[in-house]
């Protein structure tokens, strides 16, 4: 078929089939949750809920290991003193 005899693209059977198709394309379905294409927007003045590593209980041995120290009694004691002195800030510096 030559270009002169070909119907316009919008009148082709393929386009008509695509228009009639109401089925969602699985590649475009997000599951309804927020993602990169569908972010959640906050209302003006609303603060985001941020979670840090310090929101859970930490033992001195956990902090020592998170810092990359061997869990020797000396390092665990050093981590205990740091937790006692700095509290959540000691954890947030290591595990933000």
UniProtKB/TrEMBL annotation:
<protein>
    <submittedName>
        <fullName>Uncharacterized protein</fullName>
    </submittedName>
</protein>
């Amino acid at each position: 078929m030559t270009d002169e005899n070909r119907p316009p693209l919008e009148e082709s059977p393929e386009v008509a089939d695509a228009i009639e198709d109401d089925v969602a394309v699985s590649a475009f379905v997000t599951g309804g949750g927020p993602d990169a294409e569908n972010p959640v927007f906050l209302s003006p003045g609303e603060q985001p809920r941020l979670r840090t590593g310090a929101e859970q209980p930490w033992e001195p041995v956990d902090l020592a290991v998170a810092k990359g120290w061997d869990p020797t009694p000396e390092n665990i004691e050093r981590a205990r003193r740091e937790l006692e002195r700095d509290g959540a800030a000691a954890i947030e510096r290591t595990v933000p």
